[in-house]
Amino acid sequence: MAQSPSSPAADESQGPSGAAPARDPLSLPGLAHKRASDIPYAVAFLALLVFPFVTTGYPLTVLTEILVFGLFAMSLDVILGYTGLPSFGHAAFFGLGAYGTAVLSAKLGISNLGISLLAIVGLTVVAAAVLGWLAIRTAGVYFLMLTLAFSQMIFAAAQKWTPLTGGSNGLPGVRRPTLFVPGLVAADPRAFYLLVLAVFASSFFLLHRLVTSPFGRSLIGIRENEVRMRAMGYNVKAYKLTAFVIGGAFGGIAGLLYAYFNNFVSPSDVYWTASGTVLLMVLIGGAGTLVGPVLGAAFFLLLQNALSSLTERWPIILGAVFVIFIMFVRNGLVGIWTQVSARRG
Amino acid sequence: MISAATLDFVFSQVLNGVAYGLLIFLLAAGLTLIFGMMDVVNLAHGSFYMVGAYIGLSTVRLTHNFWLALIVAPIVVGSLGLIVEGSLLRPLYRRIQLDQVILTFGLAYMVSDIVKWIWGADIQSIDPPPPFDGAAKVLGTVYPSYRLFVIGVGTLIAILLWGIQQRTRIGSVIRAGVADKEMASGLGVNVAAMFTGVFVFGAALAAFSGVVAGPILGLYQGMDSDTLIIALIVVVVGGLGTLTGAFWGGLLIGLADTFGKVLIPEFSLFLTFAVMAAVLLVRPSGLFGRKLA
Amino acid sequence: MKLRILSPLGGIVCLALAACGGGAAPASNAVAAASSAAAKPSTAAPASAKPAAAASGSAPAKPAASGAAGASAAAGGPIKIGWISSLSGALAPAGKPMDNAFKLYLSQVGNKAGGRDIQVITEDEASNPKDGLDKVKKLVEQDKVDILAGLVLTPSTYAAVDYIEKQAPRKVLLVGTNAGANDMDTTKKSDYFVRAAFSNAQANYPMGDYVFNTLKIKKVYDTYSDFAAGPEKVETFAAGFKKAGGTIVGTEKPPFPSTDFAAFLTKIKASDAEATYNFEPGNDGVQFTKQYPQFIDRTKIKYLGAGDNVDESNLPAEGQSAVGAITTLHYYTTLDNPENKKFVADYQAKFKDSPGSFAVQGYDGAKLIVDGLNKTNGNPDPKALMAAMLGSKWNSPRGPVSISPEFHDIVQNIYVAETKLVNGKPQNVVMKTFEAVQPYQK
């Protein structure tokens, strides 16, 4: 939450992004002697690329979903992890993206990826600009609840506007997207996975550029000490709003991918529990690291799916995992890596 | 011009709004203190409410005494709060707030399933206790007496809390803590003890309101998160850390919700959120809250 | 930096691969279908990371739907039923009894059907459609089940049917045991979906006439929880009621979920209705029913409505407040027929609880599957199984039932019951039976 400048947070308890803002937030310190090595990213990307040629079937389905929610979590990280805005309504943009795509595909028969992307980005940018402008007037818990309020209103619209959204029954019948040329459908699991990977990788690349740029560092500065940034002449409101809009837009893209993946959208995808889940993913993975939230998404999805198939008592185990996790892990999953490689290196 | 029936109708709805509003004030009171005082995000607040309600249920089943339940539940849940605060929460005070989110969220998940394990998934309810199990006449209107009881209890608790806050030493210590922790600590206040005390009190109050709300809102899977959300709304509308805010915020939301259902039922689903958004846009720190720097 | 070059390059590579992989085709997932037909008939595969078959490029031929299922039939191994119910979350009071009774029936037939063993893989829908669909996918793609059954939620069911028809690597039959959406009888009817539960409109078709002509009530105020099932049930009643000559004096649609109905009850009290016709499921029903007598004099405005409000899962919590309600449903625990007596006794012995409508739906779902498999000699192929199931008749605890070939849905008796105190406990006492009510009527 936005701290007052003289708050005790300015002590040893580092925020999840690490101690001093000068450190590259994306560097994996195992290779600390290199500045921001890209090798781990390249390796990961190659592994993801090769995966569908090694196996298809259910594991591919799971990985596709992880990428979709990984993107969703990354988009929230821009707002929450880097800028320090505790958004509890991020499902709103995910929902706009998902429902927008679903309406285009299931109701209007438009499954063209290019058109849908343009429409969704346009829609979410406008929505995020309006919502952001209104919400940024508040801070901390108030901001949290205001974003929640907006996302609940979108939920209410999804639930009640039955002719458009299918109401409480949701919108099934979303078809897989056509690319570039009519007739070229990314239908089967492998093709669709590669499409999702393409969007995910491109988004990661763009966001990476964003958060390592001077703009990104300004965001971190605002998160760490807003008053000082303002004193230095930064238009803090404008920065916050831009971050909010960017996060919202990528959240919408994640929603678009989700609609195509699931072939079905329902109001529960926009309910506040969805905002809570993605928030958890960011926090567990490590806020302010971009990679962390992706790991958090993987962790959460894999864990919940595995547990709920194993035992009826899965909520207890899942809750216990979170409690134990937070007691012993400081900076999220990324933080574990940091601790491990710091000890090694 | 205005018929007696209409007056009767409007008055009944006002009573509905006030009863519901005071009920959610009770739900929110503990939470606002914890927030304001300790700066802690307690997502387990709904869990305390739920456990309190179920313990109240068992107490009533065993002893057929609702009044006993009103005492037993807060004591039990308060003790649970003591354990939680001491063992789990306290190590996290120095950490960022978002870590507390994960902790309390994990706790809420666990508690919800433990309750289901012990009491089952079936829907339960507590009956209103005699003499409040019928209807009474208020200014010529026949109205359920248990809701009148809720209005009474809510008002009583509000006055009690206000009195403690304004008139007693503990109250002034808490007010000081809410206003400025470091200063209070510097002045010799045992902040750690205060934290524990406030948390335990918040948990106990949540449990108390669980028993009070039981006959109206019922006991069911998911009551913890439903309650948490409404409590958060009231806290935010009223302003963090202020009981006055929780009181008036509760009344505002209660009346808005009720009259929303009467006048614009199509939109009542998000009216509560719209009211909250409207309040925050005009007063970004809630009705009575202090500005977060 | 490498990343700068790699990522856009990688993105382009992906898109190119995706474009190649995607055929100009209707969305038939030929790739995985071909691989599963080639794979060994799977015994209970643990959560293995990589299935044996590595799919080759795109095989544009439409998958032979019976091929994959035929593989397991030929082997004579166990039949795998993927069973999904809401075991956690707000719908657990419905999902758990459904689960209990489904397994009760299977155990009563020795977990065998069509000469083969039955293996049930249970998954939790967790009271939300996303989890429901996720589990359907897992059961079909990972566990390679032969038949699917269950699902409490309507959106889950819609999504599951759509998935089976368009996206799934193998086709399986889904036996629905709860979701009652009306259009699944007509516009959303599917070759892969058969319902052993009810349609939302079904129990409410005969009520309009009954309320007006038999109960002699002329003015009704109706209420229903504001989600899809609400109007499907109550507006069906209202249409029949108005046709018979009655008047609907007002309609309230409390948000779903709600816990406090004071505002709505106050409005009803101020009206000139002779009765209310209500549908609020689950906890909403409990609170609504409990709050009703606090605001409304039941001798002046009677409580009528859907039996869901006073179902076995709600009745204990409602207690006295439910007494006097007159409701309609396809099943009441007190039904007096030999099958039900046995069913209730068996259920109570095993689960220490009274079975309600959700339980009987699970029970009948299991029976439908077993009988179907017996007829197909253990072949779970969806076409064969559906053909075996359509037209089947049996005596259920609900009375005589049959599966309509026209609607892929259950034809059953509809009962009207009054909630009375029997030995100090509220019970639904049946007072009227409508026989063989179709799930869909114009």
Descriptive key words:
heterotrimer; A: two-stranded antiparallel sheet; 68% helix; C: 442 residues; alpha/beta; Rossmann fold; nine-stranded mixed beta sheet; six-stranded mixed beta sheet; 15 strands; 40% helix
Task: Give an account of the 3D structure.
The complex is a heterotrimer of chains A (345), B (293) and C (442). With 345 residues, chain A is an all-alpha fold. Chain A has 14 helices and two strands; from the N terminus they run ααααααβααααβαααα. Chain A has a domain of 229 residues. In chain A, α2 packs antiparallel against α10. By secondary structure, chain B is mainly α. Chain B has one domain: ABC transporter involved in vitamin B12 uptake, BtuC (Orthogonal Bundle), CATH 1.10.3470. Chain B has eleven helices and two strands; from the N terminus they run ααααββααααααα. In chain B, strands 1-2 form a two-stranded antiparallel ribbon. In chain B, α1 crosses α6, α9 packs parallel to α11 and α10 crosses α11. In chain B, 58% of the residues are buried. With 442 residues, chain C is α/β, with parallel strands linked by helices. Chain C has two domains: 203 residues, 3-Layer(aba) Sandwich (Rossmann fold), CATH 3.40.50.2300; 152 residues, Rossmann fold, CATH 3.40.50.2300. Chain C has 14 helices and 15 strands. In chain C, the strands form two sheets. In chain C, strands 7, 8, 9, 10, 11, 12, 13, 14 and 15 form a nine-stranded mixed beta sheet that branches. Chain C is globular and about 65 Å long. At the A-C interface, α1, α2, α7 and α12 of A face α1, α2, α5 and α6 of C.
